[in-house]
Every structure is written in structure tokens, then in C-alpha cells.
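agent> step 3/5: call structure_predict on target 'Cupin type-1 domain-containing protein' (Zizania palustris).
agent> reason: downstream docking stage needs a structural representation; sequence fetched in step 2, passing through unchanged.
tool.input:
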Amino acid sequence: MAPKAVMLPVLLSFLLLPLSSMALTQDFCVADLSCSDTPAGYPCKASVGAGDFYYHGLASAGNTSNIIKAAVTPAFVGQFPGVNGLGISAARLDIAVGGVVPFHTHPAGSELLFVTQGTIAAGFVSSSSNTVFTKTLYAGDIMVFPQGLLHYQYNAGPSTAVALVAFSSPNPGLQITDYALFANNLPSAIVEKVTFLDDAQVKKLKSVLGGSG
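tool.output (status=ok):
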């Protein structure tokens, strides 16, 4: 083997050593929210205290007086700076009777849902074969939703359902499919073409969800 080919992996190893050392020696990096987020997370805040590692925002129920009768209260890095760089975050999910969290994805993280109250029907669709995995969850049950896969939850019981959610990212992202299609200004003709829906259906959904075009 040529000397250059032998030296290349050795050189790369030395280049990576400082990065792995930083990851091992830095206990935490509380987000400085006055700066911009980056693919590597927020820059570290200079001065931190116990309050940076504490968040009370999930103690109260979210407002479910909306079209989907559900509320997601996040504890992502934007609300809870202490999770910056730790690869975790959380949220609270409240679903009123008849409520639904429509098909959506979290592009940057997997989700672990823990039902604390009520009954939730949930499922996700695999990307390789469009296989659907569904389950009815009761208080004490958990279900995992792999990163980036379309999934849903709805209230399948006679009372309000509540769940706590953990994510494998400080900023997992959230994109609801219905809103992505119908709550924007993408021309109806294009939406009709890519969804196979007729003009009346598209315009109705745009009207309901606040879209235009």
C-alpha cells in the first residue's frame, strides 16, 4: 500500500481527536438564545445557573380550543436552553375528546410517547414499504416513532388524553402534513396535481386551514 494511503486515516484520526476530546470534557452548553441556531446547536451561554437546567412549562395543560382539538407544548432548546447539545428534548401533548394530531414528522429526532391519562390511538408509516404500525395506548403505555417517519395520534377515549413526549434531539422540528399542503400560498392547481384532489376539495381545505392561492 502506498505511504500516502497509509497516512490518510492516521491524519484523519488526529484531526478528529480534538473534537472527541471537547465532547468528553465539556459537561454542558446552555444555549445562548440571543445568537442564531446552527446545525451544531446554539453557542454556549457564558454564565449559567440552576434555572437553566429547569423548566416548568409542561406543568399546565395546553389550549385545545382549535381546529384539531389538540395542543403540543414544547420543551425544545428554544424554550429550555439547558438541553442544547445534549441530544434530548421533551413536550406535553393534550388531546381533547375528538381531537387529533394529524400526520406529521419530526425531521431531526425520534419520538418516545408516554401516555399519562386517557386513551390515544397512534401509528406511523414506514418509508421503505409504506407499512402501517398502529396501537391503542392507555395510561402507562409508551410507543416509539422513528425519526422522520409520518405518524399521528388521536384521542380514542371518552375523556381528555395527556402524554409526555421525549425526543432524541434538542430541536426535533415539527411539520404537519395537512398544514404543509393547505396552509400556505402554493397555487391550488399545483396542490391538485400532486395530491390527486379536485379543485373543490383543495379550496375547502385551504379555506379551513388558512391557506391561499
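agent> step 4/5: record observation. DSSP finds four helices and ten strands in the chain.
agent> proceeding.
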